Amino acid sequence: MAKTIPPRKDVKKEDKWDLSSIYKSVDEWEKALAQLDEMIKAVAAFKGKLGAGPDQLLAALKEYEKCLLQIETVYHYASLEHEADEDDSTATDRFGRAAMAYTQLQAELSFIDPELMEIDEASLRDWAARPDFADYKVYLEKLLHFKKYTLSEKEERILSLQGQPAMTAETAFSVLTNVDMNKTFGTVLMDGEEQQLTETTWGVFMHNHDRKVREQAYKKFYAKFEEHQNTIAALYAGSVNQDVFTMRARGYDSSLHAALYGNKVPLTVYHNLIECIHKNLDALHKYYGIRKRALGLDELRHWDVYVPLVKSVQTKTTYEESVEICRAALAPLGKEYTDRLCNGLLSGWVDRYENIGKRSGAFSSGSYIGYPYILLNYNEDNIRDVFTMAHEGGHSMHSWYSVHNNPYMSYDYTIFEAEVASTFNEELVFEYLLDQAKHNNNKDLEKYLLAMRADDILATLFRQTMFAEFELKAHELVENGTPLTPELLRKIYRELLELYFGPEMHFEENSDMEGLRIPHFYSAFYVYKYATGISAALALAKRVTGGGDKEREDYYKFLKSGGSRYPIESLKVAGVNMEETEPVQAACDTFRSIVEELDKLL
Question: Measuring CA to CA, how many Å separate 599 from each of 108, 289, 381, 385, 538?
Fold first, then answer.
């Protein structure tokens, strides 16, 4: 009997998240939204007065904090309701009104940061050092970090007005690829039926074990991108030019410098990552050789790299059983951690299963008020969903510790740190399930887990580094006066494809079109954080599981740091130094050992 997806109204209460930790009712949310106008006015009354003295500034910061906390909470509640059921018009309406309120707040309070920058730096630092400024010290110090690259009030206003037009390239790329082109990819014959090829179904076809299905989908997909190569290349060049314009306007040394400066990440972290991965490409090339043999291919093609190396094993893990796997696997973190996480997973943190109108995939979404919520579309027939639960649980526990150990103005951690806690949990679950499979002599599950982990590390460590290298090369060309053409972009990307995939891979003439279809490239220098994140996570997982109380407490200090430290420093507290190459090399060594073990089993 086919599984039916229920409407939201038919989902059991215990399977939904409990949003009452934010607001007890929609009426309470409405009252909070209505209060924002007066709260914004209370902050706006301080315009032109922030530098009048420490008492005046402190009073303004307290009102500002109240305002920011209110809009965050209002927006968070509305967004969670909307994500759970996009078919609910009332939830969509509330989400729209929350977004409008957020935009209004940003516009009316945009004077604060520039006005704070105008205060004498020595005076502002003296005020921030006062005990009564303790909740705002980190916020003010991070603001002053940008002072060197902050322009005059008029110049800042011009740059802010340019913000929306600066998004044109990214917006146009999204509309072109997700809407206009998405209607024209055609169909693919799968299971005896013609099925629509889209950006979404592309992944499904690439994972299909029928090679003819993969080849059809690949060729039709990239042929369509090639038809639009001039437009897409122009859009990406526009995005890079925008980054270079902003870098030069503010006076940064390079686009990379501009992207890393805010989090105090040294440029060497980026360059060391690429250099270290280059030194370990032989392990990646060996893996592709294993993939070719395991799939029984004469030639490995680009459409053969995503299909699972080992067919999924038949398992059935209920939601509650998955929670207990997390409890057992994460035991090295201690009972306090596992009890809090597992109680949350079972009691209100999670929206568990798919319903009509619910957003696909999974995420963790925390705010200063309320639980660190998790959206899942849990499927007990897919063992990957156990890893997803652990992953999102890692994010939520990171958020929980950040909230409970920091004032509001410095609780939020950076994207650089975000993937560490989640990937850390995944690694512990992998090691636990692999040990169980070996103990039970379940060779099929053992092979499946190793193959899955190899693909995950490959995608996060090697693949994202290749993307990061492409971004760097593209920006450096523009910074040095070389315009980006379709031919040049494709040439750069093809060279990287050949370098990373190695001698086993046979590419098509248009395989390099892949470089023009990655949405993340429109948020420059973002993808490297996936690679550094998994490197830090693997190093810390090994440190904690192989250590004692000190190593565990060091990891807790990282989770509790929130936004109180810059990311490199917070990871040093945990026991890993991302300024050195050791964590990346250790991650490569982990990948290498998995490949060796997989080679023996296959």
Answer: 61, 10, 27, 26, 21
Contact 269, 416 (CB under 8 A): no
> What gap in Å lies between CA 305 and CA 459, rounded to an integer?
11
| Average pLDDT of the chain, as a whole number | 95
What's the pLDDT at 3?
63
Instruction: For residue 90, give the H/E element and its range.
Output: helix 89-108
Assess contact for 500 and 574: CB atoms under 8 A.
no
Backbone CA torsion sign across 266, 268, 271, 272? negative
Token output for 419: 């993937």
**Residue 449 CA from chain centroid, whole number:** 23
Check whether 574 has a pLDDT greater than 50: yes
| pLDDT of 236 strictly over 80 | yes
- The verdict on whether 392 is a catalytic residue reads yes
Per-residue pLDDT band at 156 (split at 50, 70, 90): confident
Angle between helices 229-250 and 153-161 (to 10 degrees): 170
3-class secondary structure, 177 = helix
- State which amino acid sits at residue 291: R
Least confident of 122-126, 268-272, 313-317, 360-364: 313-317
pLDDT in tens, 187-197: 999 988 999 99
What Cα–Cα distance (Å) separates residue 546 from each residue in 256, 367, 391, 550? Answer: 36, 33, 21, 11
List 63, 81, 170, 392, catalytic entry? 392
Angle at 472 between CA 470 and CA 477, to 5 degrees: 100
